[in-house]
Each structure stands twice: as structure tokens, then as C-alpha cells.
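During the second half of the funding period, the structural biology subgroup turned its attention to how the target accommodates small molecules. The most pressing case was guanosine-5'-monophosphate, which had performed well in the primary screen but for which no bound structure existed. We therefore specified the complex as follows and requested a full 3D prediction, including the ligand pose.
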Amino acid sequence: GLPPYDPGNVFARILRSEIPAKRIYEDEHALAFHDIAPKAPVHVLVIPKGEYVSVADFSAQAGAEAVAGFWRAVGEVARQLGLEGPGYRVLTNMGPDGGQEVPHFHVHIFGGRALGPMLS
Ligand code: 5GP
């Protein structure tokens, strides 16, 4: 089963403004900020405001409005970053094999260069 949500995780602390982040977008459903260790010229994280451990938790538990609002925010952030023309990659890591480090559901947006094939 899924672990319980840990309200002390680093993204929860960013949501509560207890620690700083380079915020670029916020609405009622989502917050976006730059990754602290960027792995592409553009590397942004988008998180829902609700307490979901991972995509599994979000998919199973979030309401339709929260899910739609989150994905609308993902697209809007990419658009505002100028990535819609050239394109970009959206990725989420889940659990140990997925390499998830922070237990608050988030998607990565990578862009700013041709990214090549997955998992390279
Ligand atoms: P994942 O959980 O998807 O494997 O990766 C978590 C991501 O969060 C990593 O890319 C890491 O660089 C980023 N990250 C970890 N701690 C912080 C932080 O305190 N601030 C920001 N902006 N990013 C963080």
C-alpha cells in the first residue's frame, strides 16, 4: 500500500512558504517552481495543493476538479515558459523503482533543448 502523507515533506514546506522557492505560477489547484537542481535548460516542478503522496494517490483520491485544475496548470506553465512551440517533456516518478525523492505528487516539466529518447 501507499505510505501516509508526510506534511513535513519539502514540497509541503514550500507550499506553506516555510522555505523559499523560485515560484513561477500559482492558482487554486497548483503551484509551480523551478527545480533546485535543473537537469535541462528549463526544469520546473508542478505540484497540486492537495496532500497526495504520488501519482497513484492523486489518481485514486483527487476529485475531478482538482485533477482537471492540476493538468490545466501544467499546460499553462509550459505555455507561459514558451515551450508550447518547441515542445517539452512531462514526467512523474513514483515510488522506489521510479526514483521518487519527494513524497508530494509532482510532475517535472523539462524543456529548452531537444531532449532525445526517454531513459537515456
Ligand atoms: P523526484 O521526487 O521526482 O525524484 O525528484 C524531486 C525533485 O525535486 C528533484 O529534481 C530535486 O532536484 C527537486 N528538489 C528537491 N528538493 C528541492 C527543494 O528544496 N527545492 C526545489 N526547488 N526543488 C527541490
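Two results from this model are relevant to the next phase. Residues 64-80 form the longest helix (17 residues). Strands lie at 23-26, 30-34, 42-48, 89-91, 107-111.
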